[in-house]
Predict the 3D structure of the following.
Amino acid sequence: MPTIETDEHKALRSAVAALGKRHGRAYDREALWSEAAKLGYLGVNLPEAYGGGGGGISELSIVLEELGAAGCPLLMLVVSPAICGTVIARFGTDAQKQHWLPALADGTRLMAFGITEPDAGSNSHRITTTAHRDGDNWILNGRKVFISGVDIADATLIVGRTEDARTGRLKPCLFIVPRDTPGFTRRAIDMELHAAEKQFELTLDDVRLPADALVGDEGAGLLQLFAGLNPERIMTAAFAIGMGRHALAKAVEYARDRQVWNTPIGAHQAIAHPLAQAHIDLELARLMMQKAARLYDAGDDTGAGEAANMAKYAAGEACVKAVDQAVHTLGGNGLTREYGLASLITAARVARIAPVSREMILNYVSHQTLGLPKSY
């Protein structure tokens, strides 16, 4: 597997970096989203037949990483084209593809993704949102929490569970729920973390959907679910790496210029070495992210699952350490609004928590990779 980027990837990285630089840390989400759409970056992973760029998660992760490195990450890139767009492209009906993919690619429509529930946490087997047939329709009931961007999304891809007629067991299924569907309500969560995209709690109270709201095969819901979750982990890694790079760049610039003794503070190893270590950690995390993206784009879902989890873990840890060291390098200035680093202290922890905690990733690696027994 090649570890050196192609010329096309280098050109994409450079072009997106230029876009990010134009918008910067004080970016307007709608303006940046619109320009990224016009340049073809939002749908770079979607099929060309539906208006996309014909690439994969490898290309989309470059877009998010470079925007993050410029201080203007677009969280909905993780959700709309990466999760929802990928699932629909792989498993949707022709009508679903025609309706959603061109609009997701050109930015005229957005989709949110609803899996997390108040009492389920990282245990997807405890999801209680259920779907049952009523004639030609589906009826959904349940709750979701910490769902990003529902207020700006035209629909939400909801993970529910249906009963297997043969075994009676509940199995996951995916449904497209338009924003204005009766019984589908949202409540904004009051977050201490301030971000361009808001978080919501959703309630589904006898939400009636037509038969064509189901995405893919009713019997293959788990496969389809992980087809969206692996890109989510890869894109979260890109988000974290971009944020870490942004913080590190600020710290390096400051350390080069800040002088309180005879030389700039960056000349002192106590300052230089931790910054160098942060850079190394971010580069190593990027290599694992690239591996995961390439495995996924090649159709190796099993290999991509392991690599995506490890990439997300490595990137989250590297991001938190880079942000912490950046703030520490600037001292008191690291907590001022002028330098824009203090808010990243909280934001960086998101990559450790979502979409799956680092502890659950360690569980995954210990069980699935190392073959150790489960404790739960």
